[in-house]
Amino acid sequence: MSNLHTLDFTLEPLDNDRLAAVAGQLDENLRQIERRLGVEINNRSNQFRIIGEREHTEAAADVVQSLFELSESQAAISRADLHLLLQQYRVRDDREERSRGDDFTVYTKRGPIKARNKAQAEYIDSIRRHDISFGIGPAGTGKTYLAVACAVDALERQQVRRIVLTRPAVEAGEKLGFLPGDLAQKVDPYLRPLYDALYEMLGFEKVAKYMERNVIEVAPLAFMRGRTLNESFVILDESQNTTIEQMKMLLTRIGFDSRAVITGDITQIDLPRKSQSGLRHAIEVLKGIDSVGFNFFSADDVVRHPVVMKVVRAYEHWERKQALLKEANEQAAHEPSEKSDKGTLP
């Protein structure tokens, strides 16, 4: 703790209305600065003390001073105003750098979770560097598990205030209408992999406590419409079963200080044949956007039982053969018949 730095300063002139605008309702603006920059802010009237690492305390003081200057021209400071200021004063979080390490380890209270291959390391790095990250590939590659691990890590380091886990309510050969309960209860079994990962990383009691307080929210995709998800870590699982409209709806829910991870397997689409997968469409539409990262897994990246890798490869081989056969049939159908040409008189 010897590397902590204390910075004292005073905001002049003394103006209680402007100071209230800087602090925000229930000091929410100051708490947000603390979370984003990893500092502690104490104040009495217009006298401030900021404690933290030197680079962080100086950045926090600049943000508070900028808010005070902004309060001279407007009575209230919006979430957007604070967000834009914090973006200008982004500093390296040494805690985050330590949590990355050369092996891209994610730390949770139940222990470290390490990337088990190059693809997983690149996936973790992408989640940390991008506002929206896609994890695309076959079952058993750790897409969902690592996304939940990164979400828990971000929550425990107070980078976000809640975790939102969602997936489309699409049946895989079994009708939801035959299951008992309301829509949330019908979809609940389909969200079990997300629950299992949370229980492993946080423990059953803590997950139950967080869900009761809405710090962790698990909901079907249909419940996301009309919402804005600020300061949230959003995970959309089984995204290959979203429609184009659903994918756009979810991605446009992302608010300030939020991150989204979209996972899916484009070889296991359960949508009706005439519906286009929102995941396939997003890969084409969003490529090239700096704040969006794409990570593709293959059968070689499967980390489950070795037989899973063999199963995935067998299906990939079969699908390639089917694609080649379809291409050959279409080409033959479009080629003119040589026999009919020879039988035609000039």
- Count of individual beta strands: 11
Q: Write out the strand line-up for the largest beta sheet, numbering strands in chain order.
A: 8-7-9-10-6-11
Multimeric state: single chain
Order of helices and strands: EHHEEHHHEEHEHEHHHEEHEHEHH
The main sheet comes to: 6 strands, parallel
Provide the helix percentage. 40-55%
- The first-to-last residue Cα distance is 96 Å
Q: Compute the gyration radius: what is it? A: 25 Å
Beta-strand fraction estimate: 15-25%
Shape: elongated
Structural class based on helices, strands and sheet pairing: alpha/beta
Uncertain segments of ≥5 residues (pLDDT<50)?
92-103
Number of helices: 14
Mean pLDDT across the residues is 82
Structure description:
With 346 residues, the chain is α/β, with parallel strands linked by helices. Helices cover 45% and strands 16% of the residues. The strands form three sheets. It has a six-stranded parallel sheet with strand order 8-7-9-10-6-11, with helices on both faces.
Short description, anyone?
With 346 residues, the chain is α/β, with parallel strands linked by helices.
Secondary structure elements and their pairing?
Elements: E1 5-10, H1 16-23, H2 28-37, E2 40-44, E3 47-52, H3 54-70, H4 79-88, H5 94-100, E4 105-108, E5 111-114, H6 118-129, E6 132-136, H7 143-156, E7 162-167, H8 183-187, H9 192-202, H10 204-212, E8 216-220, E9 232-236, H11 244-251, E10 259-264, H12 278-286, E11 292-296, H13 306-334, H14 338-342
Parallel strand pairs: 6-10, 6-11, 7-8, 7-9, 9-10
Antiparallel strand pairs: 1-3, 2-3, 4-5
Helix pairs in contact: 2-3, 6-7, 7-9, 9-10, 11-12
